[in-house]
């Protein structure tokens, strides 16, 4: 059932290669994926990747939430730069796709369920099914658009507007992660977030 959700996500993308329109070819691809995909459940918050480590895996979030953050050397504070919610395919994009040490810590929250494969497994998948590389192309394009918009929002929106946008993009996220993480994502101190909520009420 978990893998079925992944396949619905992948095959629901637009403008896929013609090979993926063939039922027999699609079945061969999913059968192969079934043979290599691993599953994990995380009862507690857990780091999947730390800064400086090799980003060796790519994940699918069946259920739960995860985030990518770094520790700011200027003050030692965590800076959350990306949040992944249910049905996201995720990794540290620069570390994984550029095969370089990760610049992010990747943390999965308590109660999350994941599917994952390693970099060598992905490379072998693309060797056997070259057209499947479209998924990586789409993923890198998504990350480029995401970080461009995030950079724009950090300078063009107020902290309150960023908070409202976060709640819109990730419904009920305030029940899934701490205010400290939310504050780091919208780039303000936790006490500033508490003050904004007190002044404006919950959106």
From TrEMBL:
Signal peptide (from-to): none
SUPFAM superfamilies, per the entry: cAMP-binding domain-like (SSF51206)
UniProt keywords, alphabetically: Kinase, Transferase
Domain Cyclic nucleotide-binding: 20-125
GO molecular function, one term: kinase activity
Keyword Repressor: no
Pfam annotation, one family: cNMP_binding
Keyword set includes Signal: no
PROSITE patterns: CNMP_BINDING_3
Record protein name field: cAMP-binding domain of CRP or a regulatory subunit of cAMP-dependent protein kinases
Native species: Mucilaginibacter pineti
């Amino acid at each position: 059932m978990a893998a079925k959700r992944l396949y619905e996500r992948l095959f629901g993308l637009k403008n896929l290669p013609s090979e993926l329109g063939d039922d027999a070819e699609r079945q061969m691809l999913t059968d192969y994926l079934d043979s290599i995909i691993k599953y994990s459940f995380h009862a507690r918050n857990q780091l999947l990747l730390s800064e400086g480590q090799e980003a060796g895996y790519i994940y699918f979030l069946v259920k739960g939430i995860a985030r990518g953050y770094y520790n700011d050397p200027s003050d030692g504070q965590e800076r959350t730069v990306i949040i992944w919610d249910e049905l996201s395919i995720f990794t540290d994009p620069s570390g994984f796709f550029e095969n370089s040490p990760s610049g992010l810590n990747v943390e999965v929250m308590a109660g999350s369920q994941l599917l994952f494969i390693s970099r060598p497994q992905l490379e072998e998948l693309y060797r056997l099914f070259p057209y499947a590389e479209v998924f990586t192309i789409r993923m890198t394009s998504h990350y480029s658009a995401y970080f461009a918009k995030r950079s724009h929002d950090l300078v063009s929106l107020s902290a309150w507007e960023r908070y409202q946008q976060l709640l819109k993009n990730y419904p009920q996220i305030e029940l899934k992660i701490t205010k400290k993480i939310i504050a780091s994502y919208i780039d303000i101190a936790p006490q500033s977030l508490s003050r904004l909520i007190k002044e404006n009420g919950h959106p």
